[in-house]
Structures are given as C-alpha cells and as structure tokens.
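Final report, Chapter 2: Outcomes

The project's central promise was a pipeline that accepts a single protein chain and returns its three-dimensional structure in a standardized token representation, suitable for archiving and comparison. That pipeline is now operational. To close this chapter, we reproduce one record exactly as it appears in the project archive, with the input sequence first and the structure output second.
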Amino acid sequence: MVDTSDIQRPAKELVEGLSGIGSATAAGELARLGIRDPYIQGPVARTPGKSIVGPALTLQFMPKREDQYAVDEYADPEKQLHRHALYHTQPGDIIVVDARADMNSGVFGDMMMTFFMGQGGIGAIIDGCIRDYPKIVNDLDIGLWLRGTTPNFHTQTNIVPFAVNVPIACGDTLVMPGDIIVADDDGATVVPVSLAPELVEKAQTHAEWEEFSRMKLSQGGHLRKYYPLSEEGRAEYEAWKKEQGH
C-alpha cells in the first residue's frame, strides 16, 4: 500500500492577494525581500495568456535503476507515484514536477491531466515533458509550463517517480510543498508562504505606482522622472492617488 502525505495549503486570502500581480512583479519584489532568484528556469509557458496562482503539490523524479524499478507502465498502477501526487489534488492546486530536465519521458498524459482538472487542478509546472500535448492543450482548461513534449510514457526511458510532496529542485529552484506558485507568460515564480503577506502588500503598492508611471510614460513623460519614480514624480503620484480616491 503506497502512502503519501498531503500538503499544508496557505490561507486562501494569501493566494487571492497574489492573483493578478504577475510573475515578474512577484520575482522582483521577492528579490527585495531576500529571495535572490525565485524563478523556475526551464519550463516555459505552453498555454499563452494563462495566468495562475496556487499552492504547489510536488513530485520528484530520479534516475531509473532497474533493480529499484522493474515494473512496466500498467503492471500495478497503484505503485505509480505520479498518480499519487494527483490523488491529493484540491481546487486551485498546481502540480510542480522535478523531472530532471529529461526530454524523453512524458510525466503525464491526457487521462492523468483530465483527472487533475476534474479534481480542480489549475496548472502544471514540469521541468521535463508531457505526452498527448495536442489533446491536453485543446481539450483541457489548465495552464502548462513545460520544457517540451514527447510521445514516451513516464518511465519508458531514463527516470522514475520517486517521492510525493517533498522539497524538490524544479529548474534548479527549491520548491517546498505548499509554496505559492505565480505563473504566467513570463514563467513561474515560487513564493514562500512566510513571505506572502509582505509580498502582497508590496506588490499592491508596486502595481499602483506602475499604473501611474505607465500612464505618464505613454503621454510622453521621461523615464528618469517616472520609472522608477523620482521625488518629483512621486509627489505627482501621491496627488494622483488622492484624485482617484485611493
């Protein structure tokens, strides 16, 4: 009997507070909070325009060694840990997979992703590949950040699923189970839950002054004055905020 643990999910208000800020703002503000590089390098957006925020279920793959994994794909499905990772899915969850940047193994196919979406999953960040990509991207309403695609199944060549909901290195970035993922066309950013409240506050402030700066720059304002805000530009921004009733 395979037994895997669930994650501790962050408060919903933290996830909601981070929605709409974008991965670039999240990464920039996290750098100012001491997390130098929270960006998951490798997986790229495969569902243009999709933006998701949610807690991370994690799945770790390891190199295949036949004495440790001598089971074919369907001999005993309940031994397949990639299934157990998805068994924990709750609405709003994101599955994050360290597949070792392997380009020959399809971590999930359309049936697995259909189940994941049916349970409320909203996206997959995979440092590796999936199979059945055309069917998944055309038929399912989930976000995909991947290194690539392949027709091979998950244990066909070099790697095997090894652990569920443990710390992983996805794209050489540490992801703890339950971390908040902010992903969009720029890529995926990992937000430690402990820093999420401060990030929400800083990101909202950042979004407000960037809105003002963008407006001024589009009207011919100078970069020196409005990005970042100079003292003169900030005074204008504060006056604009009062006019807007902020």
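Archive annotation: The helical segments are 12-18, 23-32, 81-87, 110-118, 133-139, 196-218, 223-226, 231-244.
This record, like all others produced under the grant, will remain available to the consortium after the project formally closes.
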